[in-house]
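Ex. 9. Protein: Purple acid phosphatase.
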Amino acid sequence: MKSYIHLSYFCVLLAKINIITAQKYDCGYCQPEQVHIAFGSKSNDIVVTWTTFNDTHESRVQYGAGALDEEASGGRSRFVDGGRLRRSMWIHRVTLADLRYDTKYVYHAGSVYGWSEKFSFKTPPRGDQWLVRAAIYGDMGNKNAHSLSYLQDEAERGHFDVILHVGDFAYDMDTDNALVGDEFMRQIQPLAALVPYMTCPGNHEAAYNFSNYRSRFSMPGPYESMFYSFDLGPVHFVSISTEYYYFLEFGLKMLSTQFQWLDRDLREANKPENRARHPWIILYGHRPMYCSNSDDIDCSVEYTRKGLPLFGAFSLEPLLQQYGVDVVIWAHEHSYERTWPLYDSKVYNGSVDQPYRNPGAPVHIVTGSAGCQEETNKFKPAPAEWSAFRNSDYGYTRFLAPNHTHIYFEQVDVEKGGEVIDSVWVVKDAHRPYNI
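Predicted structure tokens for Purple acid phosphatase:
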């Protein structure tokens, strides 16, 4: 029976080739490139995204557990960059739905005109009782990307279940009529085609109302990758756009929509049955609520924390307290900084000896030193008491969530050959809103 199915599939494929040959082959720029994957609406749904520069009239992924014996089809959309040349490309998306858990799949993407090279990925285990491993960083360009080779190496060795890129890509994706964006997406393909590459927008994505970012990435949910959430093991991840607070020329509607969505999402995550399965809530966005760098006005503005100027509307920090968000991750500053448990500029350590055991407020981590042409940022000589650790070397953050009570962060210093220069365990016996 299986041989018959394979024979039938081969006949269909041969028929497609014959039809296109009869119509004359005319697709000079149909080779897939810039392949990357992301989680879909469930952790066993994988969305494959890629680019061609001609319309292939179809978008297909052949895949399987060890062999390319299954196929899924999707759609494509024409993206026109806003630059002077109005360069266009075709962005293809195919969802591989309801995959087997804890299984290694191989795949390639394309059409009858051409296929990508073969890649692989591993689906996560079922449920919430397993170790989640992540790489986390922001602010990585296609020049001076110090961390890129380390990240590629770790991804190819199977060290990560997910990658979080916390804003600022390529520097910039729209630069040189989006040619820089194309090159950056090629550069991250060796890791982003293997590990779900989850993103949020930064200030360097703002051109043409974030059009390059919104078109090139495929995050879950209906908001064009600008904000969304997903569950992975014991963790509920929440991604937001801090840029709605700073680019008000694009209007207040999406800022209001995001704020209302975030309130609903965190309320849902705090339902007893949901918090029991995914007790850790980790929120990430680009611009930090707290930072102690010496050369950036954003460290004193902090609109996401204080709300919009004059009226304080859409302040996010009260939501962190109200819904017991455990850790908040930022970038934007080209450095690494870890805070003590912190709310409204006050420290709420768990105890003198164990500040991160049952902390009384969220912990903030800034990790924006992956490497870009703007180099790294320095710190004030005398930071506030809430700043626990700071470093300006190039690097990225590793994250582990082994169970419902412990999570772990460490900072990798690539200037020191991958040395771990900071680490912290956050331990909670229970997860609930903070009593502040």
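Check your answer against this statement. The longest strand covers residues 88-96.
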